[in-house]
Amino acid sequence: MQVYWRNKLYLIVIFILIFAVILAGCSEQGKNDAIVIYAGMGLKEPLQKVAQEFSNKYKCEVNFTFSDYKTLTKKIEDGSKADIFIAPPNYMEDLKGKVVSDHYQKLTVKIPVMVVAKKNPKSITSLEDLKKPDVKLALPDQAQSHLVGGCVGDEILKKAKLSEKVHLVKPAPTTIEGLVKAVTDGSADATIIWNDQVEKYDKGDITIVKLPQFGQAIMCALLKEAPNRKDSEKFLDFIYSRKGGNLF
């Protein structure tokens, strides 16, 4: 009889252990909140893919707040509870002591590009070519459109001291698709957008001129007051792994 009950007890213990392993995808699931990540709108698609891969593997929920970097930085400064912040270095610097230095690394580099017509009839190969009197440049009016990533062209022109030397298309296109279409239909000779934005609209009728000298590093950081630090560290390990990194 003792052997019977002892064996039964062993089976119960084994069942409990197996059940605990099944439920242990995230540390103390149910007690901890989901991983909360603040990131720029331009990173939405690749980050959601990474998060889905991570959730499938570890059964951990990942929630995002996508917005402009200034808004996200202000939210963190004001005490909003996030675990991870993904942004360019200058916004990380604004947070000063709120970032864990051991978990602060470069995630990727975004490259801006000039988009010109396939045969490039105006021979536009550099920013200097945008000064030609017969070259029309399409850039969004950010005051009107608030286009995600739409300020990159203005910022590059300012850095290159070309803002007052180019001829802008009016009215300004209000979408990425509109910017590319302006080039393909001939109403503009060039536009400037991010490399990851153009792929969707490349139908073989455009030429890409990369501007790597104006690349923007994207950093990934664990915040010191992260409510779910353990699972956030696991996510960071994943996103820097080969599998996670390939999605960028």
Question: How would you concisely characterize the structure shown here?
Answer:
By secondary structure, the protein is α/β, with parallel strands linked by helices. Helices cover 38% and strands 23% of the residues.
Give a written overview of the molecule:
This protein is an alpha/beta fold. It has two domains: 107 residues, Periplasmic binding protein-like II (D-Maltodextrin-Binding Protein, domain 2); 103 residues, 3-Layer(aba) Sandwich (D-Maltodextrin-Binding Protein, domain 2). It has ten helices and ten strands. The protein has a five-stranded mixed β-sheet with strand order 2-1-3-10-4, sandwiched between helices. Strands 7-6-8-5-9 form a five-stranded mixed β-sheet. Helix 2 links the parallel strand 1 and strand 2. Helix 3 packs parallel to helix 4. The longest helix is centred in the first third of the chain and has 21 residues. The termini are far apart. The model has no long low-confidence stretch (mean pLDDT 85).
Main sheet attributes: strand count, strand direction, barrel closure: 5 strands, mixed
- CATH class of the largest domain, please? Alpha Beta
- Looking at CATH, the homologous superfamily of the largest domain is Periplasmic binding protein-like II
Uncertain runs are none
| Strands, count | 10
Q: How many alpha or pi helices?
A: 10
How widely separated are the two ends?
A: 61 Å
Give the class from helix and strand content and strand pairing.
Answer: alpha/beta
Helical fraction:
25-40%
The name CATH uses for the topology of the largest domain is D-Maltodextrin-Binding Protein, domain 2
Instruction: Tell me the count of domains.
Output: 2
> What percent of residues are in strands?
15-25%
Order of helices and strands: HEHEHEHEEEHHEHEHEEHH
Strand order of the largest sheet: 2-1-3-10-4
